[in-house]
Design brief:
Keywords: Oxidoreductase. It is built from seven helices and nine strands. It is α/β, with parallel strands linked by helices. The structure holds NADPH dihydro-nicotinamide-adenine-dinucleotide phosphate (NDP).
């Protein structure tokens, strides 16, 4: 049986990244799992997994992790630039350190992640970049100001990259979820924003399982290389 290609995921230690790691591993792919919480990556217990403690702000660590995994399993065929944080909060009250962290991780971190694999994919004329945006990368919310800014950034970069990479046969898929049940709210420090978010989530009947997002990504990846799902927008039915 042919060996399945290597799949790399940032933010694989929880939530959507973890669910996607499990889905691709169950489909028979070796996986490169990256995040800061090494113990959570190890606890996944996935076969053919290369596990690296990587902060996406660290370009050299990303490159080294990719090189290690590729030496073992061949080229990365899909990179999921998923790692991100949501310091949602009222911009009038938010400490600038929260913007710094979100901007560094959600924008520069995504660029670092793409950079680690893009030239290899172009040279091979094969590969898929999956970019984690959000519904907050398509519409704004008044108490998500900088988070929305970072996700609009991902959206714009993804669309530009898709056009840039299309002639090289590399696919760029942007993922824009609504409310998904993960640990992402742990990053919200603004009590009022957190209370409003939770009230809205309850009012619309709750979030969606991360497994649903993972399955959509796997389905999109498994289409022939010359076919692309340009964007996956998935929300609870009642979410506006
Ligand atoms: P989680 O908090 O469960 O997952 C976030 C992941 O990102 C963790 O694995 C975390 O790992 C990793 N991460 C955070 N900062 C860094 C960093 N500096 N370097 C490397 N890894 C990092 O939440 P989600 O699964 O929900 O979030 C995944 C992505 O989905 C994010 O980009 C988020 O913005 C986006 N999203 C989530 C939605 C939701 O409703 N849940 C909706 C729309 C988009 P560790 O802490 O171990 O480093």
């Amino acid at each position: 049986m042919d060996r399945k290609p290597l799949i790399a995921i940032t933010g694989a230690s929880s939530g959507i990244g973890e669910a996607t790691a499990r889905a691709f591993s169950a489909a028979g792919h070796p996986v490169l799992l990256m995040a800061r919480r090494l113990e959570r990556l190890n606890a996944l217990g996935l076969p053919d997994a290369v596990i690296r403690q990587v902060d996406v702000r660290d370009r050299a660590a990303l490159a080294a992790a990719v090189a290690d995994a590729e030496a073992e399993h061949g080229p990365v065929d899909m990179m999921f630039a998923n790692a991100g944080i949501a310091r949602l909060g009222d911009i009038g009250r938010q400490p600038p350190e929260d913007w710094d962290e979100m901007i560094d991780i959600n924008t520069k971190g995504v660029m670092n992640t793409v950079h680690a694999v893009m030239s290899g994919m172009m040279a091979r004329r094969q590969g898929t970049l999956v970019m984690m945006s959000s519904i907050a990368g398509r519409k704004v919310y008044p108490d998500h100001t900088v988070y929305c800014g970072t996700k609009f950034f991902v959206h714009a970069v993804s669309e530009s990259l898709r056009e840039y990479l299309a002639p090289h046969d590399v696919r760029v898929i942007v993922v824009s979820p609504g409310i998904i049940d993960t640990e992402v709210l742990d990053g919200v420090r603004d009590e009022t924003t957190l209370a409003n978010y939770k009230a809205n989530k309850q009012a619309i009947g709750g979030g969606i399982s991360a497994d649903v997002v993972a399955k959509l990504i796997l389905d999109a990846y498994e289409l022939p290389q010359r076919t692309i799902v340009q964007e996956i927008v998935i929300t609870p039915t009642r979410q506006k």
